[in-house]
Amino acid sequence: MPKTQVACPQCRQPNVVEVQQIFDLTQDPLAKQKLLNGAVNVIHCPTCGYSGMLGTPIVYHDPEKELFLTFFPPESGLPLNEQEKQLGPMINRVIDALPPEKRKAYILQPKSMFTYQTLIETILEADGITKEMLEDQQKKIHLIQRLLTAPETELNTIIEQEKDSFDLSFFALYSRLMQSALSQNDEESAKQLEKVQNLLFEKTEIGKQLYKSSQETQQAVKALQDAGKDGGLTREKLLDVVLGAESDTAVSTIVSLARNGLDYEFFQLLSQKIDGAKEKEKEKLTALREKLLNLTAEIDKRMQAEFNKTKELLEKIVGVENIEAETEKHLENITELFLQVVDDEIEKARKKGDLDRIQKLERVMIVIRKAMEPPQEVKLIEEMLALVDKQEELEKFMDAHPESATPEIVQLLNGIITQAGNTPDESLQKIQQLYKAVLHYSMKKNIAAG
User: Fold this and answer.
1) Residue 263: is its pLDDT beyond 80?
2) Is the same domain home to 380 and 432?
3) Does 72 reside within a domain?
């Protein structure tokens, strides 16, 4: 992406920002993800810590959904004819990149989005996420903020007032916020979220059900872990764990976690147990066997469907001429199962001596391995962290690698420190130490150059 220098809106210090104005899914399959995640056109000022969106013209193209959208930031104050002059070349670049046979009618009439929010909503709506769904989620977020900031004495009143708002989607959103706080080591927010969640578990009907289900799941997991401690989890031990399960939730959890153990031999043991049981117990065990068979069949069906879907994706990729471009297009769909399927297919091709298929599959793997490699900036930071306690060696490294002390590296280090907050951590201290060293080195070089 091109880079440009802009002044920080807060402290007016110059910042180098990566700017992307064209989001064309035919050229970049990850373009939509970058735009929706706010991963581009963002200022992170290392001087004052300001973070915010950069107002820039945008052209968005999704041929599959037949979306061709433009956005020009209203704060620019430019007249319409000037806006069209800037957007025109970008629109033409998108059209020129399309083969003539794919230039449908929609491409001739790009839709103008008056606000950035409208742009995002239009893209999401094409994916089946309506404005009403977004508004509902926003209401839930506001309710969560209200619960987190309200005095403790008012929480019960708010919960009673908003009792119709607490549904499964609310708790799913709440759970994601908790996971986000934990992943960012934001202990203060995590504690407050947990405190309010415990109250919601106690005071709301759906909360009570979720808490009970959660406890039953945890007990089932612990039972499996305990059973596997001495000598591993045998089928006999697994049968005992299943027989000790006290709810459907616990049984479902055990089956989902230990599906491989519920094989022919396991069901033989259960059948022997049924044969030796008394009439009342026999009925109970027979019903349990039927339930286990249904659960395992359901899991197998889902797994087979997922396998078929993954295999179809692989065949679609290796079936085109430009395998590399097709693989990149589907990188977000690459899973552990996909990698396993590729390995299996390579092994089958080797046994058959099918060199052409091996070569195609290896081309897929080369793209995936490259995508899994950490960015160059991260590699540089890792190398410098190893030298952070050796000042002379670190400076020699930066002398030999000028790209290691760029504004982008400084911003990346500052972003890591900002996200980590005040968490006491040895690795964070090293990053802070490296940040100061790189900043000092960069300033020294700038003074020398001036």
Assistant:
1) yes
2) yes
3) yes
